[in-house]
Specification:
Elements (H helix, E strand, L loop, with lengths): L6 E5 L4 H11 L6 E5 L5 E5 L7 E5 L6 H17 L4 E6 L18 H12 L3 E5 L14 E4 L2 H11 L4 E5 L5 H11 L2 E11 L2 E8 L6 E9 L3 H12 L4 E9 L5 H7 L4 E5 L6 H4 L4 E4 L2 H12 L10
Parallel strand pairs: 1-4, 4-5, 5-6, 6-7, 8-9, 8-11, 11-12, 12-13, 13-14
Antiparallel strand pairs: 2-3, 9-10
Helix pairs in contact: 1-9
């Protein structure tokens, strides 16, 4: 069933395949838009159809190249505002700069708040994000934010593919709440990695809280960047006697040596979603499984458009 013509979904250049999948779920065509680069790197956007008085959704992940994709999102929002769109919703499957959500030491920025201000000032009326790195980022916006979760998609996969003798593992203290929620729904036990980070993108797994010997361990995190946390956690789990080790992460940032580290690690499979498109190196990795969140995003957009509850998707 297609929706009224007032609903328009436009995609930036960060994840065109996901945009097409969401539009397919909604039964609409992607909005006409073009994005070009001047020789000096400036972004130029042109909306190719009328949006006056329309309810407009813009799907754009701020994934690598982060700054280019963020700037493109801001420019698209501004273009829609100046074209007299009635309401503009930024659908950001992966919210870049989300890890810089607080001052961890003197004289550093809170970049997650800065990005929120930029999106708001550009003209967005609402934001839809998925698995924000920290829930309090919603409070950085002065506009409504729907922080939706990939949990239904990942839980379904775990139910279908992993054994009953499960232990859900949080790779650090910050992910305990997420891991506990998964463990409860899966009727599985919980373990926590005591991790000490020495420098950005470097982590050392120190200890494991919980019983993992003889169990199938599933490491759960919101993102995998350089894979240092995941692979060191896997090594610690293997040392403690886990019989099989898997990983589930929503956002496959996979920068630097991530894929190489995964291939050399004790992780048998790593499950991610398509909030970020995989690079060629990651696509060639035989341990990688990609789940689509298109239907979840599409249903969220549909409910937002019709002013229906979004939270009931995750009950």
């Amino acid at each position: 069933m297609s929706f009224e013509p007032e609903l328009k979904l436009f995609g930036g250049t960060s994840n065109p395949d996901l945009t097409r999948e969401v539009c397919q779920y909604l039964g609409i065509k992607p909005g006409a838009i073009s994005s070009k680069r001047f020789c000096d790197g400036e972004t130029q956007v042109e909306v190719g159809e009328n949006v006056r008085g329309r309810d407009v959704f813009i799907l754009q992940s701020t994934c690598p190249p982060v700054n280019d994709n963020l700037m493109e999102l801001l420019i698209i929002i501004d273009a829609m505002k100046r074209a007299s769109a009635k309401r503009i919703t930024a659908v950001i499957p992966y919210y870049g700069y989300g890890r810089q959500d607080r001052k961890v030491k003197p004289r550093v920025p809170i970049s997650a708040k800065l990005v929120a201000d930029l999106i708001t000032m550009a003209g967005a009326h609402r934001v839809v994000a998925m698995d924000l790195h920290a829930g309090q980022i919603q409070g950085y916006f002065n506009i409504p934010v729907d922080n939706i979760f990939a949990a239904p998609v990942i839980l379904k996969y775990i139910h279908a593919n992993f054994s009953d003798n499960l232990v859900i593992v949080s790779p650090d203290a910050g992910g305990v709440e997420r891991a506990r929620a998964f463990a409860k729904r899966l009727d599985a036990s919980l373990a926590i990695i005591d991790k000490r980070r020495e420098a950005p993108n470097e982590a050392e797994a120190m200890n494991i809280i919980g019983e993992v010997a003889g169990k199938t361990a599933v490491i759960l995190d919101d993102m995998v960047d350089t894979a240092g946390t995941l692979t060191q956690a896997a090594a610690a789990l293997k040392k403690r006697g886990a019989c099989a080790i898997h990983a589930c992460c929503t956002h496959p940032v996979l920068s630097g040596p991530a894929v190489e580290r995964i291939e050399k690690s004790a992780i048998e499979t790593i499950v991610v979603t398509n909030t970020i498109p995989l690079g060629e190196r990651a696509k060639a990795c035989g341990r990688m499984t990609v789940l689509s969140v298109a239907d979840l995003l599409g249903e969220t957009i549909k409910r937002s458009y019709h002013s229906q509850s979004v939270s009931t998707l995750f009950v």
